Task: inverse folding
């Protein structure tokens, strides 16, 4: 539970100041006010079925029939449960303020309920299927928008825009898995942002993605981000930003970088909504510009390494595709009433949703030497590294009896040794 003490320390040291702007960075104020709601999704993992929703609340002059795309966020290890809103509240509220409905699952705080059967070598137990919670949150949000009496957070959800996904640490790995294989097309995911993703497997993301990492991240070092950035078959539009001095906690309250929301939003504006500018902000310049305010130019802080591939023609093609989709949606009657997202199909299609998650299952069980080595290493890791801990959890009385017996044997041995030494001294006195 690394995040809990870190959160307490950060709050005691910084109070309301949850993060400082890196040198050279220029902070942009989110153009819209944002609110937060805690709702329940019965389909989430039983570890916690609460979903945090951050959504724009524009005033009357800003509304004007506005609609906002969906982003599904996945937390890091021990950053779920009641901690989620504390750890990531500033990040997610800031992102919502740029015009997004952000859903964040609280499930799987320190692993999902299937810990014994869904783990990868080198990872915390119970996270190999965490990405399914991120995908389920997307389906749930769309079902909410299709309800006759739509809950307020989803009243202005733009289903036709598709979805973006983002995540930190183990949530970064979840975002990697959600954007790879057939998941992106199955759930209409169109862009992704991975923040200090912790992973030992490197599938190829199939949608435009941006990876944040840092030189002082000793938990998920930059090599992990490079692993999937350079994966064969990865999307042709991609970016990686390795900030000088950034730690693993750059996205959360313990070492928060307030510039993350605006650059994350800029990526989604370009590759999810296909908007170059909005609210007087040039999002294209923020990502692909050459000035000191751009991502690689130092606008997010000094970069040890920064690379952007694609954009340009792909961006224009995406913009045309978006216009085509919106036209089709308007002709069908309502952008929020798609039969594939109806609440009835949501509640009655759990088996089909589970089968749609099979893309990563088949990936993780393939015959690749590297991937199989991760599973074999986990077998020994789970048996040796967690054996004693599992014994105490499952059979505490037996474990304490063994421990007590061992201490008694040690005590008797020390007593006999002391007595032997005493006799030896008397003999030679």
Result:
């Amino acid at each position: 539970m690394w995040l809990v003490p870190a959160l307490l320390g950060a709050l005691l040291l910084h109070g309301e100041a949850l993060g400082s702007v890196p040198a050279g960075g220029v902070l942009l104020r989110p153009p819209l006010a944002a609110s937060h709601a805690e709702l329940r999704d019965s389909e989430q993992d039983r570890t916690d079925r609460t979903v945090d929703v951050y959504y724009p609340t524009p005033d009357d002059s800003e509304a004007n029939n506005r609609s906002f795309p969906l982003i599904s966020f996945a937390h890091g290890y021990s950053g779920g449960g009641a901690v989620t809103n504390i750890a990531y509240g500033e990040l997610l509220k800031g992102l919502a303020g740029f015009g997004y409905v952000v859903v964040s699952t609280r499930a799987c705080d320190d692993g999902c309920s299937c810990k014994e059967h869904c783990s990868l070598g080198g990872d915390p137990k119970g996270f190999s299927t965490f990405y399914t919670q991120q995908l389920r949150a997307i389906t749930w949000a769309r079902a909410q928008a299709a309800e006759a009496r739509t809950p307020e957070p989803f009243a202005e959800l733009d289903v036709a825009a598709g979805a973006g996904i983002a995540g930190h640490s183990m949530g970064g790995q979840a975002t990697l898995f959600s954007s790879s294989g057939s998941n992106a097309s199955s759930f209409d995911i169109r862009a992704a942002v991975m923040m200090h993703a912790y992973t030992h497997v490197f599938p190829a993301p199939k949608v435009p993605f941006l990876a944040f990492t840092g030189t002082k991240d000793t938990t998920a070092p930059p090599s992990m981000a490079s692993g999937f950035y350079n994966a064969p078959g990865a999307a042709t539009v991609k970016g990686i930003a390795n900030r000088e001095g950034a730690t693993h906690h750059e996205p959360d309250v313990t070492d928060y970088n307030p510039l993350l929301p605006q650059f994350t939003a800029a990526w989604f504006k370009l590759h999810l909504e296909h908007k170059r500018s909005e609210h007087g902000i040039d999002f294209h310049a923020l990502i692909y510009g050459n000035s000191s305010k751009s991502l690689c130019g130092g606008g997010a802080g000094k970069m040890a390494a920064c690379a952007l591939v694609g954009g340009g023609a792909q961006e224009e093609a995406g913009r045309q595709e978006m216009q085509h989709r919106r036209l089709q949606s308007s002709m069908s009657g309502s952008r929020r009433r798609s039969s594939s997202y109806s609440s009835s199909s949501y509640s009655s299609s759990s088996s089909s949703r589970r089968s749609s998650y099979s893309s990563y299952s088949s990936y993780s069980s393939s015959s690749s030497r590297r991937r199989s080595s991760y599973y074999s290493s986990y077998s020994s890791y789970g048996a040796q590294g967690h054996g004693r801990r599992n014994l105490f959890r499952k059979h505490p009385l037996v474990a304490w009896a063994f421990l007590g017996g061992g201490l008694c044997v040690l005590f008797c041995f020390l007593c006999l040794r002391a007595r032997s030494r005493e006799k030896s001294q008397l003999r030679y006195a």
Notes: The two ends are 58 Å apart (CA to CA).
